[in-house]
Write a structure and sequence with these properties.
Blueprint (H helix, E strand, L loop, with lengths): L1 E7 L15 H8 L4 E5 L10 H5 L6 E7 L2 H6 L1 H6 L5 H27 L5 E4 L10 H21 L3 E2 L1 H4 L16 H16 L10 E2 L2
Parallel strand pairs: 1-2, 1-3, 3-4, 4-5, 5-6
Length: about 210
């Protein structure tokens, strides 16, 4: 039996934001082939560094791993991005470069820990069509997504581009719009399931899945 394990943050662990509707894990379980199951290890609020603790809970039959992490790492720097003063554009870019460099080191360490388990692994980008999101934060997200895709390429891992999956305001939860709604969760699950269903030989080398 195959067991698809979801790691990361509230992109997968969104049950608190769907008003009793289906969460991502529910959509995933409904769409899996007969004989498959899914395990949710992702936790709301988790950062990239928290994935290692989730790996300690890995079920013995875990066969495929999907990681969605990075959004909370962006949020950690949101106040600085929005409000810190800078004397020049060069200073702004230097600060962002340092944030990106630090994130790259953490994300690479996380990916190496996941890949070391020797199981088919997928990574997800961080979506950026969140209603009302400040343009500066949208720009900052591109720095984090650049890291995610570069690290996926380096590790030859397929990627699920959630920026292409969740493009409509209805994809985001009304009570807290940075989280996926039941509608958005269905799209996320669909993209993940499509990636997992593709023969492994056809998805190595950072094939990018959208929906």
């Amino acid at each position: 039996m195959s067991n698809l394990v979801l790691l990361g943050d509230s992109i997968f662990d969104n049950h608190a934001y769907v008003h009793g509707g289906p969460a991502v894990i529910d959509h995933v379980r409904r769409g899996l082939p007969i004989g498959w199951q899914a395990t949710l290890l992702a936790r709301d609020g988790a950062m990239t560094t928290g994935v290692s603790r989730q790996l300690e809970q890995m079920p013995l039959d875990g066969s495929h791993l999907v990681v969605s992490a990075g959004g909370n790492d962006v949020l950690e720097h949101a106040s600085m991005i929005l409000y810190d003063a800078a004397a020049s554009f060069n200073e702004v870019m230097s600060k962002l470069a340092k944030i990106q460099s630090d994130f790259r080191a953490m994300y690479r360490e996380m990916i190496e820990a996941v890949v070391s388990l020797g199981k088919p692994t997928f990574v997800c980008t961080v979506y950026d069509a969140i209603p009302g999101l400040e343009p500066s934060l949208v720009a900052a997200l591109s720095l984090f997504n650049d890291v995610i895709l570069r690290e996926a390429i380096r590790a030859e891992l397929p990627a699920v581009d959630l920026r292409q999956a969740c493009t409509d305001p209805a994809d985001y939860a009304g009570i807290w719009p940075i989280e996926p709604s039941a509608t958005g969760g269905a799209k996320i699950a669909s993209a993940v399931l499509r990636a997992v269903a593709t023969p492994w030989a056809d998805r190595r080398g950072c094939h990018v899945f959208r929906r």
